[in-house]
Write a structure and sequence with these properties.
By secondary structure, this protein is of the alpha+beta class. The chain contains nine helices and eleven strands. The protein has a six-stranded antiparallel β-sheet with strand order 8-6-5-11-10-9.
């Protein structure tokens, strides 16, 4: 988290997740880059076979309409069974795939979203949403962020809108935080399939400036669920206050959360409902598009 003052220029290009690569030198500098994959005979480097095999597995499972068994993946991709099994185990361990322990079928995991943080933040699928969050950040003088759950205990920042000409709080797009920190943490505790035991384990591991008891935390999560938004008034980071609203899927679980963050001296209790109402607009828009993401 970084404090930005009005005399410090902030641009999306300055975000380290979006920094342009350094110019190439030598023969590579003259290479024409297109959206197509290079064809055989056009490569100026030696492909890494293990990496290509792993990518082929990811692409194949991502394109499949339903989870797949090891035997089908091995057969269709013409991979050595032992090699394919090791690739699947590695991708599962890293969170890029999920295996059903009973059926032994593989499907895509949420870990791939970590690779998309920078790309998503550049606009892309969230272009229409960004225009709304930019407007909220400007009119309410707050930092508006969009977080996505990527693991059972982690969330990633995929979008940020800063107020123009104001001292503000800046966060790094692509950064990951424990799922239960901040105002959004109450929402993920309330709108998730996590058991109370899992929530308790996660709660014990997070660092908070002002730590409530786990029971008080869960009570606040339930109050947040009843009203549809949550507030963290300095529990996570002293001197800051955040308000969050969830983006729910068809099962009623929070997939994303919009958060408005400000200095605590800017906050009054009556602002919470106003900010929640403002963020409900992009939340409804994103909820309706979840099936396309």
């Amino acid at each position: 988290m970084e404090i930005i003052t009005p005399n410090k220029k902030v641009s999306r290009e300055s975000d380290p997740m979006k920094a342009e690569p350094a110019p190439a030198s030598g023969a590579a500098a003259n290479q024409i880059v297109t959206g197509d994959r290079p064809r055989a005979g056009m490569l100026s480097y030696k492909p890494v076979g293990a990496l290509l095999a792993g990518l082929s597995v990811l692409r194949y499972i991502a394109a499949a309409p339903s989870p797949l068994p090891l035997s089908q993946i091995t057969r269709d991709l013409k991979l050595n069974p032992s090699t394919c099994l090791n690739i699947l185990r590695t991708l599962t361990q890293e969170g890029y795939l999920i295996i059903d322990p009973h059926s032994k079928l593989y499907s895509m995991g949420l870990g791939v979203l970590e690779l998309l943080g920078g790309a998503l933040a550049q606009g892309g699928d969230f272009r229409a949403i960004r225009s709304i969050t930019d407007s909220i950040a400007l009119s309410e003088r707050v930092t508006v962020t969009l977080w996505r759950r990527v693991k059972r205990d982690r969330k990633i920042l995929v979008l940020e809108s800063l107020p123009v000409g104001e001292m503000s709080i800046k966060m790094a797009v692509g950064q990951r935080l424990p799922l239960l920190v901040g105002a959004a943490g109450y929402l993920w505790a309330a709108y998730s399939n996590l058991t109370e035991e899992e929530l308790s384990d996660q709660f014990r591991q997070i660092r908070l400036e002002r730590r409530p008891t786990f029971r008080d935390f869960m009570d606040e999560a339930q109050r947040s669920k009843q009203r549809g938004w949550a507030v963290d008034d300095g529990q996570y980071t002293a001197g800051t206050t955040s308000v969050s609203v969830p983006v729910l899927d068809e099962k009623g679980e929070a997939v994303f959360a919009f958060t408005a963050t400000m200095f605590s001296m800017q906050f009054k209790p009556e602002r919470a409902e106003t900010l929640a109402r403002e963020m409900a607009r992009p939340a409804a828009l994103l909820s309706s598009a979840l099936s396309y993401l």
